[in-house]
Design brief:
By secondary structure, this protein is of the alpha+beta class. It has 5 helices and 8 strands, in the order ααβαββββββααβ. It has a 5-stranded antiparallel sheet with strand order 3-2-7-1-8, with helices on one face. It has a 3-stranded antiparallel sheet with strand order 4-5-6, covered by helices on one side. Pfam families: DUF881.
Amino acid sequence: MKNNRQVPFIITVISIIIGFMLALQFRSNQMIFATERQDLFQLRQNVQKEMERHQKLLNDISKYEKLLREYETSMNEGGGLSVIQEEFARIKRENGFSDVTGPGVIITIEDNPVAPGMNKLQSPVIDQDLTDLTSLLFANGAKAIAINGNRLIVSSSIRTVGEGIQVDTKPIEMPYIIKAIGEPQSLEAALRLPGSDRESMEAWFQFLNKKFIIQKSESVTVPAYQGTVRVKYMKPMEQKGAS
C-alpha cells in the first residue's frame, strides 16, 4: 500500500525533471538560434561592405581607364596638356586645395545665454567634441568641411593647445561655424538622430548648454586649405642615367 502511494509522487518528480530538462533544451536552442541569426546578420553586413568596396574599386578602374583613353586621344590630337590640367584641377578639388561650392549645411555653435538668477553652467566645447562632429559629417557623405574658415584635409588635426582649440595651427574661438558640403537632408538627419551607442550630436551640444543651429542650404562655399603640407617620407626619384 505504501509503495502504491509512492508511485504518483515518483511520477510527479520525474515529470518535473523532464519538464525542466525540456525547458533548458528549448532555451538552449533559442540561444543557439539567436546567435546563428546574429552571426548571419554580421556576415551579411561584411559581405555588403566587401561588395561596396569591390564596386568602388571597379568604378576607380573605369574612371582611370577613361582618363587614360582621353589622355591618349588628346596626345594624338596635340591637346595632352589640357587633360593634365583638368586632372590636376580635379585632384586639387577632391583633396581640399581649391574652393568648392555646393549644397550642404552650415552649423553654428555658440554659448546659450543664461537668464538672470539661473545657475546653469556653461560647459566648454573641447577638441574631441569638434572631432566627433566632423567625423560624423564625413561618415554621412560630407565632401568638404571647414571650421571657422579653416578647411579640413586628410592630415588635419583638431586639438587643444593651452586654453584654446586649434585647427591644424590656426586658433579658433566661439562661435564655431562649421560648413559642410553634401546632401543636406542626410547631414541634418545625422546630426539630429541618436546613434546606436550615443545620443544625437544636437542633444550633446545642448547638454553642454550651447546653441546648436543647423541651416540647410543649396549653396555652401568651403574655402581651400591654406596651410603647408609637409611631405616626410617621400622624395623625388632620381632617373637612371642622370648625372
